[in-house]
Design goal:
- The protein has 276 residues and is mostly helical.
- Helices cover 68% and strands 0% of the residues.
- The protein has 16 helices and no strands.
- Keywords: Coiled coil, Repeat.
- This is Negative regulator of genetic competence ClpC/MecB.
């Protein structure tokens, strides 16, 4: 039954087993699987749940408010069957944490779904978030190594400030500190340095970044890739995608440094041979 499971999905089931054993149950319940998905930490399901501010502690506290029935073997079996069906519909040749979560959400009468609804969450919105993250993951496969490095650097920046999500300012710092990509070259040509950008960012009141910020920049970058007819997504496309977000902190910082967003964009296009 678990042959097609990813390592993360197998870890979720193992964590769920530990949860059931702590409750002296012979079988896994749907809520054990939900706790396993959350505590796994790095899979698509865990990221999705984090995006809805769901933590292991918050979920467990909500579960404790409910009278729990003794789990049956059929509970786990049904979720796994649902997960395998989701994988088939999405044309995936594996079962990951995302499929387990989607399979769980199908069980409308289970305690897990009741817990999520009691936390004022929409099951449909959670499902859509999973599908959106899967779309983004497919996009990341087209990232060049330099673009991937930018995102890793941006994530590191967000962690320094204790943020859960990447902000547009983090991406800007990632683009300049990556050092060798076209975006870094262009920003250096504008007399921008990592230190200069960071000092300017510190002058602004920073709001906590939302998951939607990085998603929007990546979507913009993909649109630039399609428009310019490239088969990869490079640092230049990330920069162009960032410049589209006119009201974001990164653009505000660039403008406060006396730079024209249109001129930076034209500089990128000139390098790519698409200039006017």
């Amino acid at each position: 039954m678990y042959e097609r499971f990813s390592n993360r999905a197998k870890k979720v089931i193992n964590l769920a087993h530990k949860e059931s054993q702590q409750s002296n149950h012979e079988h896994i319940s749907t809520e054990d699987i939900l706790l396993g998905l959350t505590s796994e930490g790095s899979g698509v399901a865990a990221v999705t749940l984090k995006n809805f501010n769901l933590t292991f502690r918050r979920i467990r506290m909500e579960i404790k408010k409910h009278k729990q029935a003794v789990p049956r073997a059929s509970d786990e079996k049904k979720v796994i069957e649902n997960a395998m069906e989701e994988a088939r519909l999405l044309k995936h040749n594996y079962v990951g944490t995302e499929h387990l979560l989607l399979g769980l959400l199908r069980e409308e009468d289970c305690l897990t779904v009741k817990v999520l609804r009691d936390l004022r969450l929409s099951i449909e919105e959670i499902r859509n978030e999973v599908l959106n993250l899967l779309d983004l993951r497919n996009v990341y496969e087209r990232f060049t190594n330099q673009a991937k490095k930018v995102m890793n650097l941006a994530y590191h920046e967000s962690q320094l400030f204790g943020h859960e999500h990447i902000g547009t300012d983090d991406i800007l710092l990632g683009l300049i500190s990556e050092g060798s990509g076209l975006a870094a070259v262009i920003l250096n040509n504008c007399n921008l340095t990592f230190r200069r950008i960071r000092m300017e960012i510190k002058k602004h009141k920073q709001v906590v970044p939302q998951a939607s910020e990085v998603k929007k920049v990546v979507e913009n970058a993909m649109e630039e890739v399609r428009t310019l007819k490239y088969n990869y997504l490079g640092t230049e496309h990330l920069l162009l995608g960032l410049l589209r977000e006119e009201d974001c902190l990164a653009v505000t910082v660039l403008q406060d440094l006396g730079l024209s967003i249109e001129e930076i964009r034209n500089e990128v296009l000139n390098f790519l041979g698409h200039g006017l």
